[in-house]
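Sanity check

After download, print the first record. It should look like this:
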Amino acid sequence: MQRNTPMLEQVRACRGFICDMDGVIYHGNRLLPGVVEFLNWLKAERKEFLFLTNSSERSPKELQQKLARMGLEVGERHFYTSALATASFIRAQAPGSSAYVIGAPGLLNALYEAGITMNDVDPDYVIVGETSTYNYDTILKAVHHIQQGARLVATNTDLTGPTEHGLIPACRALVSPIELATGKVAYFVGKPNPLMMRTGLELLGVHSGEAAMIGDRMDTDIVAGMESGLKTVLVLSGCTTPEMMAQFAYRPTLVLDGVGALAQTVKTQEQ
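Expected structure tokens:
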């Protein structure tokens, strides 16, 4: 895709970078090509960067450890997840409330630290995130609680997620049966919700006009960056193909095969 273009130079000149993880940095437990070079470039150029992921399964510490197992040393402060964003949203809306949660430990821990208690009897909220323990019984309980007045919140709108074995159902697919059975529409906290993007920019410490959003999804990463005033980079290492881009009315600032293209261009020009 695009290489030495004015748009590429504009993106490289940004002071800060917000990066998705699944499909951008790794597939499952497999590090993607060029990521090491990209991270080294960020550090060498003293760029501010934040990994902003819609995945709610892991805590920032767990994500840090996951990258460390892949050979990447990144501080815990460089991670922000939809689980943290969801917990922050619930705490702001209803401090001290309770929830029935369909999700992984990353979501449960974030809610607990925000003062949200677990409740499978009469919860204020039903909260849905990614999990491997999703089953018919959890759907029945969620539907029952919502029929009794609980409000439905989901961590993100991702329909699928990339793994080393291909695409798998993600949060949007898991919450859909609950929406259909209850007639209620979930409130989605993760990208492209501006709540999460504003927090990401605050953590990055850079104005939107000096930042770029890098992701593999047109319907979350790219639209979130565009609507928040960031330059946008679509990488083709995850969910989106060039043919799929035609389905959308908007376009990213730049399209690259992977994040390594940013660092590789620098090396090429310096040789």
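If your output differs, re-run the checksum step. Summary of this record's structure: The mean pLDDT is 93.
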